[in-house]
Amino acid sequence: MNRIKTEVKEVGVLLRSIPSLTMTLFIVSVITMNLLANKSINLPFSFMALDCGIVVSWLSFLCMDVITKHFGPKAATQASLVAVLVNLGMCLVFFLASKIPGVWGESYVEGSEAIINGALDGTIGGTWYVLFGSTIAFIVSAIVNNYTNSMLGKISNNNSNFKSYAFRSYVSTGIGQFCDNLTFALIVSHQFFGWTLVQCVVCAFTGMIVETLCEVIFSYPGFKILQNWQKNKVGREYFEYMKESSR
C-alpha cells in the first residue's frame, strides 16, 4: 500500500513538472488515434493494411521521446499510463453517448437514416476487443519505445546534439511502432477480422515505416522543445523529489 501511495505521489509530481501543453497534446493524440483507427486506408495491394490512426500516432511517440530524454523512461511510461487511463475514461463517455437516443446530423440521408445512425453510434461507442487490443498494444509499445530510447542514449557518445537525439528517436520509434502495430493486429485483426499472419506483419512493418517518417519530419521541433526545457530547467521539482526519495 505504501508503494502505491509513493507511486501515485511520484506521478502527481511528474504531471506538475511536464509542461501542460505537451501532456495535453500527448493525451489528445492517444484519444484521437483510437478514434481515427476506425477508418482504414485504401491501398493498392491486398496484403497491405493501414488505418487513419497513423495521422496522429507519430505525435504520441514524439511526446514520449521528448519526455524520455528529459525525465527518463520510467517517467515517460508513467505519463503513457496516465494517457491510457484518460483514454479509457473518454471511451466510456463515448460509449454512453452512443447509447443516448437521438440522431446524428450526418445520418439525414433519405431512406438510410437508421443504418447510418447505427453505424455512427457503433463507431463512436466502439467495441470491447478493439479497445482492449489498442490499450494493450499502446502500453507494450510505450514501454518498448521509452526504454529502447533510454538504452540508446546510454551508449551514445554525445547526448546533447540533434544527431544523437534523432538516432535514438528514430530507432526507438520504429521498434515501438512495429510492436504497437503487430500487437494490435495479432490481438484484434487476426482474431476477429480474419487477417493472415502475413497481413499482420506487413501491416506492422508498413505502419512502422510511415510513422517513423513522420517522426523524422517532426523530430527537429521536438529537439528544440527539449532544448527549451533544459534551458529553463523544466521539471526541477520532479528531479529534486526523485533525488530526495532515492536517499
TrEMBL record:
This protein's UniProt keywords: Membrane, Transmembrane, Transmembrane helix
Could you tell me which InterPro entries the record lists for this protein? YhhQ
Q: Does the keyword GTP-binding apply?
A: no
Pfam family of the protein (one)? Vut_1
Transmembrane ranges, per UniProt, are 12-37, 43-67, 79-97, 128-147
What protein am I looking at? Putative membrane protein
| Species this protein is from | Holdemanella biformis DSM 3989
